[in-house]
Input
Amino acid sequence: MSTQPPHPTLLIPGPIEFDDAVLQSMSHYAESHVAPGFVKTFGETLTLVRKLFQSSTPTAQPFVISGSGTLGWDIVASSLLEKGENALVLHTGYFADSFATCLETYGANATQLKAPIGDRPSFEQIEQALKEKPYKVITITHVDTSTGVLSDIKRVTEVVRRVSPQTLVVVDGVCSVGCEEIAFDEWDLDVVLTASQKAIGCPPGLSILMCSGRAIDCFKNRKTPPSSYYASMGNWLQIMQNYENMKPSYFATPPTQLVHALHTTLSQITAQGMPARFAIHRQASDKVKAAVAELGLTQLAANPDNQAHAMTAIWLPEGLAPPDVLPGLLKRGVIFAGGLHKEVATKYIRFGHMGVSVTSPGRNDIDKAIAALKESVTEAKQAKGL
Amino acid sequence: MSTQPPHPTLLIPGPIEFDDAVLQSMSHYAESHVAPGFVKTFGETLTLVRKLFQSSTPTAQPFVISGSGTLGWDIVASSLLEKGENALVLHTGYFADSFATCLETYGANATQLKAPIGDRPSFEQIEQALKEKPYKVITITHVDTSTGVLSDIKRVTEVVRRVSPQTLVVVDGVCSVGCEEIAFDEWDLDVVLTASQKAIGCPPGLSILMCSGRAIDCFKNRKTPPSSYYASMGNWLQIMQNYENMKPSYFATPPTQLVHALHTTLSQITAQGMPARFAIHRQASDKVKAAVAELGLTQLAANPDNQAHAMTAIWLPEGLAPPDVLPGLLKRGVIFAGGLHKEVATKYIRFGHMGVSVTSPGRNDIDKAIAALKESVTEAKQAKGL
Output
């Protein structure tokens, strides 16, 4: 029996449903952020972040910082780029536009490589772009929460290493880390930034980054000072290293309760093993996608290669908008999200299938949601005479 | 009976002990950040922030953002100053140095007006400095957590309005908001920035700001774009206004559980009324200061006018360092903090007396801590043969 009160099942692409033990960790009693008990918890949490990314390279560096996922963009933009340097932004939806704006705020030149809605730039286009000018970083949204498009970060990185080996590969993994396959060391990634509230299954409020030794060196070799204070890797690097070495350290007060919750969820996730976790999310995603097809509905990400396993962005039948369907879902105890991509927001809905809703089959969340979707769409079509 | 497990009483200058209901709010079940339930909670929380600051001016604007208190400095530095503009930083300890570094990171010229340790710049010095060049902002650490020095922000603001009326008065209220008197409108302040984990009694992870209409106009009238993305007021202003008007809005996912906890604690604080809360903290502080004097100990803040009511920074007897005394306190169930001011860190300890430890007399925290302090200092002196 869950210790949580009855409530509609949250199946948006983050925040997601929480495990009871994770939520209980949020109520941890007050601790000093520099006392041995919390230092141990935070230090272990950073080591668990390495496991989450299947990384064992000592020069790679995890960061866990108070802030939302968006803060990760500022950390990259203000720490790894200097004014006038170039960033190639692969565009698969809403989040690339915002990341590009963030990069430009700090003085970088962001070039967006755009794909039609639901698609992603081709490997050939990426290779071509990389040959045109020197790029300090390439950014990839692993799963674009606005479209449900999955990028192939492994193959993109192979292209980068072949064509422009010094370009830093920066992955926005906010909606992917914890459910989509990522092998940080093996794939030779430089930065994966994420947030606590999606597939990691922790409440929102933590910006989490994994950085390669190459990325850290790039920061250390800057010619100009970093252009942010709170978002500068320089202010956090020693702090993270100290905590992982079980030494108290202070730059800003860490969010102690959220760190406890992250510790709990990462302990659960890594105990299961990452390959098993990825497989479970693939299976759930396959089930959802099959059900969507069976309902005669299509996805924004039309090509199966492009489809995220974290979520499904579903075109509504012609004549229906999210407000026609979402209340019917809620009535059946399920919360989906409306559209987010500005150009088509009124034409689709988003179904997140991550974390305990997928890994705890006893909850029956996914089957319940599939049934609710079927009934709600049917009901909405009838109400509109479609 | 508390629902929290037995644990040593945390009496550092933040984080502090939590009320049971506040901690229980941290375990709130998953909600969408744009669904009506959470939108109402967040909207009400913003209105409660106004009450916390005793502000009723509609043009004043509260912000509640995922991040630590430090983030508030970046918000000020990147939103309110443009490159080359001047900031006068009143120095009463560690935190002025850091705020000045943050201001300079974003291109401002920070001039520090320093006082000896335990003291604060005089009103005459401040007036003189303001007459020397035009300052866009003046920053004041209301309570410097490193020294326990209280600044008279009301009188400083009077000086500013007389000598340099357009200068924005920015108060670092991280260790003051919720226990030291602040009348935002009446005193004509421009920004008070704070964090959730001190006298407000919420777990750490929220950067909270109250900004005057003058400050917001200053942001809107910038000649150059803001130099941060996550810390730009521009990206949050509409979001905060929408939530307070009960309209969902998205820039970055808010930390939903922390916002619930803030809602709970601000509901408690404002129900009591701010003047009553300030008075209780003054009484507790007077009791602590009298006990410290009775022990023959002195404070870093020697002048009673300069002494914070949130905390007491206590010089240890000659020959004792924090590691001689803190374990004795812990043995007696009480946690104090060591020194933080770099020049004298090994010579003093810090006793935080804020929030439920002060407002819930049944807890007996302050009396227990005073007794533990007396015994621990006596024991440490005996051990050292002093």
Observations:
- Chain B has a mean pLDDT of 97.
- Chain B has two domains: 9-16+273-383, 22-271.
